[in-house]
Design brief:
The complex is a heterodimer. Chain A is an alpha+beta fold. Chain A contains 29 helices and twelve strands. Chain B has five domains: 120 residues, Glutaredoxin (3-Layer(aba) Sandwich); 204 residues, NADH-ubiquinone oxidoreductase 51kDa subunit (Rossmann fold, 3-Layer(aba) Sandwich); 87 residues, Ubiquitin-like (UB roll); 88 residues, NADH-ubiquinone oxidoreductase 51kDa subunit, iron-sulphur binding domain (de novo design (two linked rop proteins), Up-down Bundle); 57 residues, 2-Layer Sandwich (Alpha-Beta Plaits), CATH 3.30.70.20. Chain B contains 24 helices and 21 strands. The chains are: A alpha+beta, B alpha/beta.
């Protein structure tokens, strides 16, 4: 529902505003300045200095309201500088000047109110310090809203009100984000930079503050990272047919509502604070479940704290067909406790389950475990076996590539089917997104140096949800730029989440391909780099820094026998529908593509013909995107960095040249 | 009572209580309100029981500890029912006399009865005492008549029939309409029509499709005020039933009572009443076996005056510092936990059951104005006041709206004692105003008091005599508010402190020309620009005294004189030659030994040593000490 528009008159000027927007926005929008000492554009209004008071008239009734926190709800006439308003502003300004005569922001505001002398209000409490705290409350709000902490607050009633940390002691929970100092209008809060001596701490702070302000004001309308963390995309992925279900067969499930972020928020998450993983970060994407009682395994009956679940954890479970949130939290806990990667465990188990359902393996192989999709108890048992080094768990624990090769070697079922559905590349299991309809993501996964992990090239959102890289060239360019950009985070020990999980409110003003990069946030990182080292950074320099490492990594991969075209080739499940059931579940889409892209008439084709035609098309598309990406990266058609590229990057060491292509 | 009671059991329970009481010759209602308890009310009750047992009368007379009787000035009180014989100021040794002479001998004890302070005539019964005769009891309908911890007693007085009728016969909207038509306005101070508030709450709840809460404000913080405490102490079920009806009307299933921790007795009674109501199925799931569920939780306040302000109260309930927020968006839309919240004070809730029992018309028939079509158009019903200060009959009184101040102070209150004259009455708590003798014939209601620059507030009424300095009074209340301002907004924080400094300067004899203009300018800004009503009304004590007693301010500033003889730096004590008998009574009490003189000769005060404490003035029986 679009918000209602309301016409108001400010100083004889007609203005249209949105219902429930604060009056001060309309006043500022009308180009009128209001004196204020407690309003800050990125913080919820305080309404304490009372200086922004305006006189309004509604239905013939006049009254004074503070513009900063007065929500416009009906037509009205506003005077921002009436005689009545001026009279009170003068008295208020005198009160401020009387208490804090030498603080520049107060002198400035008082002057604007026509006051230069506050001696009538001078008292024993008059503080001559030009950097005195004026009780505006910005720091308290910033700590609460940016960082979700309450390290700073006011204590003392009435005239004794003062700023303090709990019990007047330095609080160990303070993460040193410096937001409070940044918003302080008087300099009352000083930051002592004695940590790692950045060259320009203010530059870092300025951009860190920008991130904090966006988190506080935009996140709740974008991703709700602060509320539910990365799990916010469970329902989004389901909506876009991208949530892995039954070993990536499907992208949606009617039971997703049972495990979506709202369920986690309402029934599970108990911790919602920044965990300090990145000094000063206020996104607090990490979530935790407290007091969770385990139902299985060595800690059965214990109440434990579980770090998570995040999106990939939920996706790993839906991939196994498990839609029980209690199971997800327990699976999460034991994977963490055993030191097992949740994604590998989930994707591996999903593969086992599909093989079990397809009859590739039976209970004779699994030691009696009925490992069908959705078999939560059996999954946990298998996980416990894995940790104990017992039974079928030992085999599953060695991963999809091991199982695939073993079962093909043992001549079980159809080898092609097993290869098609075994979701691994370079021996690493897939992360939890269905890439079938996103060429960019298929390549982003399969061409990643370490294997199909989204950390290097998570393009699915910009490709599928935001549709920012529609053309083939766009995708190839994305496969060049984003792996390097993401490598850059890793190089500097920086987290990527504050880059793109919340975007500036006006990011859409950029062209789609540029918007996908979120240029203003990239700039934040450049400024962090500059503030730390003193060296300016731009895109070209950044790409050069990364490319050296990325190419080195690729050559290492070549050395280990993975970094080739064959090693970048995914199982067909990641490109398209393997089984009949899978094709039929999205027949309309696939038939449509046969018709529109390949000019075929699906009505005249058998199901097998259609599947074959689609497969041939998709596999050839994938080969093409690899060609384009290799070319853009300066690699040979076999996916090996060329000698020329190494020379260009200045890493033409003899050992590397020996591995490089001509 | 341990099992839920059904709807048709109310009459049975009531009959049972009456039958039980009929087995006795009579009942001895011992006041166990906080005032009487402080004067050994619990001991009196215990001794009474002991003496009855000794005389073998325990089966003939039933001793009932009640809540506040109201006539606190003469406690401890025992009323012998059914005759209504009123015994006052009982000491422990008086109990034996009462039992032997009255209960055994059948002859009421005159020396323990109330006497007319002027004529000395004896008033044997409650209804003979003028303190009671002009009162009309609605919120206090059960005071002194029931054991406040006994649910059956409440039911026997007609309790819970209103809730039963509402749940079975009414739609929630009907209940709200009835309350609106009754003209019931919030007794907590603002005088906002309760029905209008409930309707807004219900509307917000329906619009947002979320929970709604009802809250009872029992954070009574005005100095000298004890209306809410006494209502809870004497009739807690009235508040609980009122809230339950309110919850049904607005659609709430959760309610909260925010009560000061300084009210231990009220808290104990409230908790017991809540437990009993729960056990009887009158709170909790499926009340009276219907689909309506509602329960009440207690939140104890820590004693900040500002927490009586509704948004500060809700912040405090939520675990945050008790600071108000701007109420451009009302609590009925976004209140506790950001959900619609309907808050009324104790007295308002206590008025609800009788209104639904007897009808809006009955309630609207009391008080001023015609509220039939518009609840703003008058003040219906009664109002409870705590009458304190320089008045004979201090205590708790409930009078119809529209009664004059003179009737309250002179008839109910018995006038100013000790031969002094009336000077002003302060209404509305610390941020109310002082009303002079010239306005004593004004009818008391929400709008008339506001018109005089004071307010109804929650019902505090402090009477002042001619020995009260109005500048000092203003300073006292402003200092109270300086301490109790939360400090969030600038005008209240800085402005009140500035007012306090100027007032102190004037009282100290250091006032200068221009101070009064300055006071008025600051008051104007504090009143108009403060964030909440604590600040908005804080200038009242200054503005009302400036309006009615400006000459006293001027005497302080220009003549360096305190006409009432209160402000110490401006006064001196002197012993008058002809009047002093040389009795020496003033010599010993003087804390600085400033008074000397031979016996039977005029004494002298050494002005250097005198600290102007006024003790000599108080002890002199010959009016020989003069203060100027």
């Amino acid at each position: 529902m679009a918000p209602t528009k309301i016409d108001i008159t400010i100083n004889d000027k007609k203005i249209t505003v949105l219902e429930d927007s604060m009056l001060i926005k309309a006043v500022i929008g009308a180009g009128i300045a209001l004196p204020t000492l407690c309003y800050h554009k990125d913080l919820t209004p305080n309404g304490t200095c009372r200086l922004c008071m305006c006189e309004i008239e509604i239905k013939g009734k006049r009254r004074l309201v503070t513009a900063c926190n007065y929500p416009v709800r009906q037509e009205m006439t506003v005077w921002t500088n009436s005689e009545r308003v001026q009279k009170h502003r003068k008295v208020l300004a005198q009160m401020y000047l009387g208490r804090w005569p030498n603080v520049p922001v107060i002198q400035d505001v008082a002057r604007r109110c026509g006051v230069t002398d506050g001696s009538a209000f001078a008292s024993d409490l008059t503080d001559p310090n030009p950097k005195a705290c004026i009780l505006c409350g910005h720091c308290v709000k910033a700590c609460d809203e940016f960082i979700q902490e309450r390290i700073l607050d006011f204590a003392g009633r009435g005239i004794l009100r003062h700023l303090t940390m709990p019990f007047g002691e330095s609080d160990p929970h303070c993460i040193g984000c410096t937001s409070c100092a940044h918003v302080c209008p008087t300099g009352a809060i000083q930051i002592i930079d004695d940590t790692n001596h950045p060259v320009d701490p203010d530059l870092i702070r300025k951009h860190g503050m920008k991130v904090n302000a966006e988190m506080a004001t935009l996140d709740k309308n974008q991703c709700c990272m602060r509320e539910v963390g990365t799990a916010n995309i469970v329902e989004v992925m389901d909506r876009y047919d991208l949530l892995p279900v039954h070993n990536y067969k499907f992208g949606q499930h009617p039971d997703t509502y049972k495990v979506d972020s709202q369920v986690l928020r309402k029934k599970y998450f108990t911790q919602n604070n920044p965990d300090g993983c990145w000094f000063g970060c206020s996104m607090s994407c990490a979530k935790a479940v407290d007091g969770f009682e385990l139902k299985t395994g060595p800690y059965k009956g214990h109440r434990v704290t579980v770090d998570g679940p995040e999106y990939e954890t939920v996706g790993a479970c839906t991939n196994m067909g498990c839609f029980d949130p209690d199971f997800i939290v327990e699976f999460n806990f034991y994977c963490d406790t055993y030191g097992i990667d949740i994604i590998s465990a989930g994707t591996g188990m999903a593969f086992v389950m599909e093989c079990f359902e397809a009859g590739v393996i039976t209970t004779a192989d699994t030691g009696g475990l009925e490992l069908k999709f959705g078999a939560c108890a059996e999954v946990l048992e298998c996980l416990h076996q894995m940790s104990r080094g017992e039974g079928f768990g030992v085999e599953v624990g060695q991963g999809v590539r091991f199982l695939k090769e073993k079962w093909i070697r043992e001549g079980r079922g159809d080898a092609r089917f097993i290869r098609d559905i075994g979701m691994e590349v370079k021996g690493l299991e897939y992360s939890e997104y269905v890439p079938k309809e996103s060429l960019a993501q298929q390549a982003g996964y399969a061409m990643a140096v370490k294997g199909p992990q989204h950390d290097e090239a998570w393009l699915i959102f910009m490709d599928m949800v935001n549709n920012q890289i529609p053309s083939f060239e766009d995708k190839a360019e994305a496969l060049y730029y984003f792996p390097l950009w993401r490598t850059w985070f890793g190089l500097h020990g920086l987290c990527k989440i504050v880059w793109n999980d919340v975007a500036p409110a006006d990011n859409k003003k950029y062209a789609p391909q540029l918007a996908a990069k979120i240029p203003e946030h990239v700039d934040n990182y450049f400024k962090f780099y500059e503030g730390m080292t003193g060296e300016k950074l731009d895109e070209e320099k950044m790409l050069a820094q990364s490319a050296r490492v990325h190419n080195l990594q690729r050559l290492m991969s070549v050395l280990f026998g993975f970094g080739t075209r064959a090693g970048d080739t995914p199982p067909y499940r990641s490109l398209g529908p393997v089984t009949e059931e899978e094709y039929l579940s999205r027949a309309e889409r696939y038939d449509g593509q046969l018709q529109s892209v390949l000019g075929l008439d699906p009505a005249k084709m058998t199901l097998d013909e259609k599947r074959a035609a689609l497969r041939a098309h998709r596999e050839s598309q994938y080969q093409k995107v690899m060609d384009a990406a290799y070319a853009r990266r300066g690699w040979s058609q076999d996916g090996i960095p060329t000698k020329a590229r190494l020379r260009e990057l200045g890493i033409d060491l003899p050992e590397l040249l020996a591995l490089a292509a001509d | 009572m341990t099992s839920p009671i059904s709807m048709n059991q109310l009459e049975t329970i009531s009959a049972g209580v009456h039958a039980e009481q009929a087995r006795y010759r009579g009942m001895l209602m011992v006041c166990n309100g906080t005032g009487c308890v402080a004067a050994k009310g619990f001991e009196i009750k215990k001794i009474l029981n002991d003496r009855l047992a000794e005389h073998g009368l325990q089966d003939q007379w039933l001793v009932v500890g009640t809540g506040c009787n109201g006539f606190c000035a003469v406690g401890p009180i025992v009323v012998v029912q059914p005759e209504g014989i009123f015994y006052q100021k009982l000491r422990e040794k008086d109990v034996e006399t009462l039992v032997v002479e009255h209960l055994v001998g059948g002859k009421p004890v005159e020396k323990l009865m109330h006497r007319n302070p002027v004529t000395g005539a004896i008033n044997p019964k409650m209804e003979d005492i003028p303190f009671f005769t002009k009162q009309q009891l609605v919120a206090l309908r059960n005071k002194g008549l029931i054991d406040p911890e006994n649910l059956d007693h409440y039911i026997a007085r007609g309790g819970y029939t209103a809730l039963r009728r509402v749940i079975t016969e009414n739609q929630p909207e009907d209940v709200i309409a009835e309350i609106t038509r009754s003209g019931l306005r919030g007794r907590g101070g603002g005088g906002f029509p309760a029905g209008v508030k409930w309707a807004s709450g219900r509307k917000a709840m329906e619009k947002r499709g979320c929970e709604i809460y009802v809250v009872c404000n029992a954070d009574e913080g005005d100095p000298g005020a004890f209306m809410d405490r006494s209502i809870i102490e004497s009739d807690p079920y009235a508040v609980i039933e009122g809230m339950t009806i309110g919850a049904f009307a607005v659609g709430a299933s959760e309610g909260f009572i925010y009560i000061r921790k300084e009210y231990p007795l009220a808290l104990v009674r409230l908790n017991r009443a809540l437990d009993a109501a729960r056990a009887a199925g009158l709170l909790g799931d499926r009340i009276f076996g219907t689909d309506f569920s509602f329960d009440i939780r207690i939140h104890r306040g820590a004693g900040a005056f500002v927490c009586g302000e509704s948004s500060a109260l809700m912040a405090s309930m939520a675990g945050r510092a008790g600071e108000p927020r701007a109420k451009y968006v009302h609590n009925v839309e976004y209140g506790f936990r950001d959900k619609p919240t309907v808050l009324n004070n104790v007295e308002t809730w206590a008025n609800v059951p009788p209104i639904l029992e007897k009808g809006a018309k009955w309630f609207a028939g009391m008080g001023t104005g015609d509220v039939k079509d518009n609840p703003w158009n008058g003040s219906s019903g009664t109002k409870v006041f705590s009458l304190v200060g320089k008045v004979r009959n201090t205590g708790l009184v409930e009078v119809p709206m529209g009664i004059t101040l003179r009737e309250i102070i002179e008839d109910v209150g018995g006038g100013v004692p000790d031969g002094r004259t009336f000077k002003a009455v302060q209404t509305g708590g610390p941020s109310g105003g002082c009303i002079p003798a010239s306005h004593l014939d004004m009818p008391v209601d929400f709008d008339s008091l506001t018109g005089l620059g004071s307010m109804m507030g929650s019902g505090g009424m402090i009477v002042m005599d001619d020995r009260t300095c109005m500048v000092d009074v203003a300073r006292y209340f402003v200092d109270f508010l300086v301490d109790e301002s939360c400090g969030k907004c600038t005008p209240c924080r800085e402005g009140l402190y500035a007012l306090s400094r100027i007032l102190r300067r004037i009282c100290d004899g250091n006032g200068v020309e221009g101070d009064l203009d300055m006071l008025e300018a600051i008051c104007d800004t504090v009143r108009e620009t403060s964030l909440c009503q604590l600040g908005g009304s804080a200038p009242n004590p200054v503005l009302s005294t400036l309006k009615f007693f400006r000459d006293e301010y001027e005497a302080h500033i220009r003549e360096k004189r305190c006409p009432a003889g209160v402000c110490k730096p401006l006064i001196s004590y002197r012993i008058l030659e002809p009047a002093c008998t040389g009795c020496g009574a003033c010599v010993k009490p003087c804390p600085t030994a400033a008074i000397t003189g031979e016996r039977k000769k005029t004494h002298v005060i050494d002005a250097q040593k005198c600290i102007r404490c006024g003790i000599c003035f108080e002890v002199c029986k010959f009016h020989a000490v003069e203060v100027k």
